[in-house]
Write a structure and sequence with these properties.
heterodimer; A: 134 residues; mainly beta; 6-stranded mixed β-sheet; 10 strands; 0% helix; globular; B: 375 residues; Peroxisomal Thiolase, Chain A, domain 1; 11 strands; 34% helix
């Protein structure tokens, strides 16, 4: 199994999924993806900060046809979620049916299959899924 | 403002698809017209600035080489959808600085077909399905629907308005009028945006000769800005994980600077050409340019102000929705359109009595430009 990008997210041994963001001690703000340099104050001493797994849905649409360079299934959900740490991230959504999505709903970070490469290796990415209400 | 800059001549190659012409052919066509319009020949300008994104190395040089007009500085400029306006901005600045008296600014493009594969996106983003330009537009449209009183029907009505205007523009690619129903019923691209709410990347060229001095149409202001850190939903990054979303967008930064430079406000504008890559983008621009307040785009559009019969017609050319968008040429095409209105030469689409016009582009980078013209 291969992560589409191993600098963006990780699955912990206990199965918990987190995004890998950055934290700036200078301005005390977090950002994603992690960079050495803070996108707000330009201080270059940022450290890693794990983000997620909960978020609320802010904006969403559905991608109906495969975009350039994409080999996975369509349709797929696409949107922006606000993480519990307060920042907003563009992401895939596991739910492509817009009738099942609404602004403000609780979402959870998951690892989601993307496609299977020529050599048979499964490629995965991070995505946000609607949190089942109990 | 110490040094005035005026438009001495303009030229355009229509926007569309021209399989039998190279990008150099398109550029030469526009340049010949502009030089003739300005009444100058080889040696009549001291520098040239060329805006283009997809034309490769030294594209502007190739155009001027084909015309036997090289030797002066030629600078190729890439600033996404604002590339043409960036070339103009450099030309205006060079004249204002006192370095040159007459400069040539131009832009041309032959865009790939379909959803543009952009080197702006890293390969993994494409693999993950995050390199979907229309999906970002769709999110912006949805935000307008949630926060600015915009309806699905209004998104269609923007397209109807611009296509109705474009019928009268011989330089436009799509000169066909649509009904609201036809727009709503066209193929869904990314909800809420249907095919007829999105502009087509295409081909074309535009050229302007700028000259020192105040005569005819003057450049009252030219401002180019990039994005500030903070905003999540912009043209600047496909993965902005940032906290606050209150940073003014680049369009607002450019508009603020341009209004200050021109010494006027949005209420003084008579005609606008704004970036309508999609229907929602035009409505965003109303708010970001200050034509209406934040959250008022829907009500402002519904009031009819931006129709040809309104007090501030927007995109009388038909906009990018009718013309298509050749990145390097689109911003200069807007300026040429306004120039025609200010001179009373816009024919059946003329905005009567227009003396002050505003042109706006925004796109990848992010880059935004605002140019204000006065007669």
């Amino acid at each position: 199994m291969r992560l589409v990008n191993d600098k963006l997210f990780r699955e912990r041994p206990d199965g918990a999924v987190r995004l890998i963001g950055g934290y700036c001690a200078g301005c005390e703000r977090v950002h994603f993806p992690q960079g050495d340099t803070c996108p707000y104050c330009s201080l270059s001493e940022c450290t890693e900060s794990e983000l997620g797994p909960r978020a609320t849905l802010w904006l969403f649409t559905s991608v109906l046809r495969p975009p350039p360079g994409y080999r996975g299934q369509v349709p797929f959900g696409f949107g922006i979620v606000e993480l519990e740490q307060g920042l907003r991230v563009v992401t895939r959504l596991t739910e492509p049916d817009l009738a099942k999505l609404h602004r403000g709903m609780t979402m959870k970070l998951v690892i989601s299959p993307l496609h299977t490469a020529e050599d048979g290796e499964r490629v995965t990415t991070y995505a946000f899924a609607p949190e089942p209400t109990v | 403002m110490s040094v005035e800059v005026s438009i001495a001549g303009v030229g355009m190659h229509p926007f569309g698809r021209f399989d039998d012409k190279s990008v150099v052919d398109l550029g030469v066509h526009a340049l010949r017209q502009a030089l003739e319009d300005a009444g100058i020949e080889r040696g009549g300008f001291q520098a040239a600035y060329c805006g283009t994104v997809y034309s490769g190395v030294a594209a502007g040089h190739k155009v001027l080489t084909a015309m036997g007009m090289t030797g002066m500085p030629i600078v190729n400029v890439e600033a996404g959808c604002a590339s043409g306006a960036a070339a103009l901005d450099l030309g205006v600045g060079a004249i204002r600085s006192g370095r040159y008296d007459t400069v040539l600014v131009f832009g041309m493009e032959k865009m790939p077909r379909g959803i543009i594969r952009s080197s702006f996106f890293e390969p993994w983003r494409e693999e993950a399905g995050l390199a979907v330009t229309p999906a970002y537009f769709a999110l912006r449209a949805q935000r307008l629907m949630l926060e600015s009183g915009v309806t699905r029907r209004m998104l269609a009505e923007v397209s109807v308005k611009n296509h109705a205007n474009g019928v009268h523009n011989p330089d436009a690619m799509f000169r066909k009028q649509f009904t609201v129903e036809q727009v709503l019923d066209s193929k869904m691209v990314c909800d809420p945006l249907t095919l007829f709410m999105l502009c087509s990347p295409n081909e074309g060229a535009a050229a302007i000769v700028l000259r020192r001095g105040a005569s005819g149409t003057t450049i009252a202001a030219s401002a180019l800005r990039s994005h500030l850190p903070g905003s999540v939903l912009g043209e600047h990054t496909p993965l902005a994980g940032l906290i606050d979303d209150t940073a003014p967008p680049p369009t607002t930064l450019a508009a603020t600077a341009a209004f200050e430079e021109a010494g006027i406000g949005p209420e003084d504008i008579h005609v606008c050409e704004v970036q309508d890559t999609d229907s929602a983008r035009e409505l965003n621009s109303y708010e970001e340019l200050g034509l209406c307040g934040a959250g008022e785009a829907g009500a402002f559009f519904a009031s009819g102000h931006t129709q040809m019969t309104g007090r501030l017609p927007v995109n009388p050319s038909g906009g990018l929705l009718s013309k298509g968008e050749p990145l390097g040429a689109s911003g200069l095409g807007q300026v040429i359109e306004l120039h025609r209105h200010l001179r009373g030469e816009a024919g059946p689409r003329q905005v009567q009595g227009a003396k002050v016009g505003l042109a706006h582009t925004v796109g990848r980078g992010a880059n935004a430009s605002v140019v204000i013209l006065k007669q």
